[in-house]
């Protein structure tokens, strides 16, 4: 630590690299917080957690009992343990008796512009937009099946669309301004489990379905323009064997494939002016799969360059969004939940990946796949995790109905406003033994 500070003062290390190194070290040293506790009001497993993008302060949670709640992670409502542990109680709770969802809430997300609105998706076939101040529904959208995932673009400036995936084979885009569906994206052959907007292009949305396919859509064009294939990995320095092999005609197999595909006639999609849009994909490419099983998670990095996916095969894949290649990163084996979608977390510098695995959280190095640390936390299966990059805190939700806070270890005693509590805190360390 001190050597890094000295190198920073001497200019031997870039400020961004220095801050990233400190932040990564703090993330690697996360432990269950010894000074912060979130009081969960849910009577069912916690399925989704989101921190707001504006202040990194308000935590939104959705649970299997259909309830939704919000917490202020910076304002403590009560103290415990002589003022040592700060309790964070919910600001409000919306359940099925207060006009909430009838069945389990599968996804929650904040409105990207401010915290005045938030979006929830549920197994009761509804996607609802809520007013945070009045806790009332502003607009709702009736879906044809269970809603597995809903998401809004964090960089959109020209639209207010919610991409929703359900047990139906179509992805639907819901417009908050008009209260109607604006797009229907058709291409999947089974239900859609995961929905994620691109972090670099407000018009691109990525979906993962129960047909094991991950599709990229440009909502300004018909059809998807890319399907990820787990076989297509990023080429290395050494060419594959087939490129050097020679067939019975005396030419290399790679050259033979190139000649055959060169003469293949492509069917093009053109608009009214004759401009080519997206070529219609070949049948073999249209059947490409990203995992051996349905897709349970899609998570894009903040720089918009990479995509992380998980599937029912308990594998984690790292994709290059620009090329669509499956990057050669072998993540260590882990047990992933397959019954419902998961929620991952990635550090802002894309160095660490946090994955819920059974009753714990595993932290992987993004570029080597090495397991950095395992956080044993819950008594039952962990469903989701959410990262607060401002305070370097990790929030986790599980089927045991609890929301846990992981923070960098703090050996110092926090300041307590009440003098009596401060005196009780120091006196609690004294013993009552006689000399």
Molecular structure report:
The chain has a single domain, classed as YVTN repeat-like/Quinoprotein amine dehydrogenase (Methylamine Dehydrogenase, Chain H, 7 Propeller), CATH 2.130.10.10. Helix content is 11%, strand content 37%. The chain contains 6 helices and 30 strands. A 4-stranded antiparallel beta sheet has the order 1-30-29-28. It has a 4-stranded antiparallel beta sheet with strand order 3-4-5-8, with no helix packed on it. A hairpin with a 3-residue loop joins strand 10 and strand 11.
Distance between the termini: 43 Å
Largest beta sheet: strand ordering = 1-30-29-28
Number of strands: 30
Unreliable residue stretches:
236-247, 260-271, 275-279, 413-435
CATH class: Mainly Beta
Name the CATH homologous superfamily. Answer: YVTN repeat-like/Quinoprotein amine dehydrogenase
What structural class is derived from the secondary structure elements?
mainly beta
**CATH topology name:** Methylamine Dehydrogenase, Chain H
Averaged pLDDT, please?
A: 83
How many discrete domains? 1
Q: How much strand?
A: 35-45%
**Helix fraction?**
10-25%
General form: globular
WD repeats: 98-140, 185-220, 288-329
GO cellular component, one term: nucleotide-excision repair complex
Pfam families: WD40 (PF00400)
Keywords: DNA damage, DNA repair, Repeat, WD repeat
């Amino acid at each position: 630590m001190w050597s890094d500070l000295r190198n920073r003062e001497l200019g031997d290390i870039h400020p961004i690299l220095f801050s990233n190194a400190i932040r990564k070290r703090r993330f690697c040293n996360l432990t269950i917080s010894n000074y912060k506790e979130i009081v969960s009001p849910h009577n069912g497993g916690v399925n989704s957690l989101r921190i707001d993008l504006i202040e990194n302060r308000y935590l939104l949670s959705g649970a299997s009992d259909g309830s939704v709640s919000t917490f202020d992670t910076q304002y403590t409502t009560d103290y415990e343990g002589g003022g040592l542990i700060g309790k964070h109680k919910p600001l409000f709770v919306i359940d099925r008796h207060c006009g909430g969802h009838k069945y389990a809430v599968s996804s929650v997300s904040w409105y990207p512009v401010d915290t005045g609105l938030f979006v929830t998706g549920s197994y009761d076939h509804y996607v609802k937009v809520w007013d945070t101040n009045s806790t009332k529904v502003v607009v709702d959208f009736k879906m044809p099946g269970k809603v597995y995932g809903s998401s809004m673009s964090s960089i959109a400036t020209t639209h207010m669309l919610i991409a929703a995936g359900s047990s139906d084979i179509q992805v639907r885009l819901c417009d908050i301004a008009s209260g109607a569906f604006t797009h229907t994206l058709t291409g999947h052959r089974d239900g859609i489990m995961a929905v994620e907007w691109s972090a670099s292009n407000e018009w691109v949305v990525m979906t993962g379905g129960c047909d094991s396919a991950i599709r990229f859509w440009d909502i300004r064009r018909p059809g998807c323009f890319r399907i990820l294939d787990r076989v297509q990995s990023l080429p290395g320095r050494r060419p594959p064997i087939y490129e050097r092999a020679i067939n019975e005609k005396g030419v290399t197999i790679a050259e033979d494939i190139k000649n055959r595909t060169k003469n293949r006639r492509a069917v093009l999609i053109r608009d009214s002016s004759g401009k080519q849009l997206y070529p219609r994909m070949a049948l073999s490419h249209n059947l490409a799969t990203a995992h051996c099983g349905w897709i349970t998670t899609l998570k894009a990095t903040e720089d918009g360059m990479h995509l992380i996916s998980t599937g029912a095969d308990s594998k984690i894949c790292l994709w290059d969004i620009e090329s669509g290649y499956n990057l050669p990163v072998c993540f260590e084996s882990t047990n992933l939940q397959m019954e419902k979608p998961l929620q991952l977390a990635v550090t802002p510098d894309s160095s660490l990946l946090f994955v819920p695995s059974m009753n714990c959280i595993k932290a992987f190095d993004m570029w080597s796949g090495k397991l950095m640390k395992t956080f044993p936390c819950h008594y039952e299966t962990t469903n989701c995790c959410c990262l607060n990059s401002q305070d370097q805190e990790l929030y986790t939700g599980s089927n045991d109905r609890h929301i846990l806070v992981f923070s960098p270890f703090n050996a110092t005693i926090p300041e307590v406003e009440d003098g009596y509590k401060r005196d009780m805190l120091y006196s609690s360390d004294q013993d009552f033994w006689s000399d």
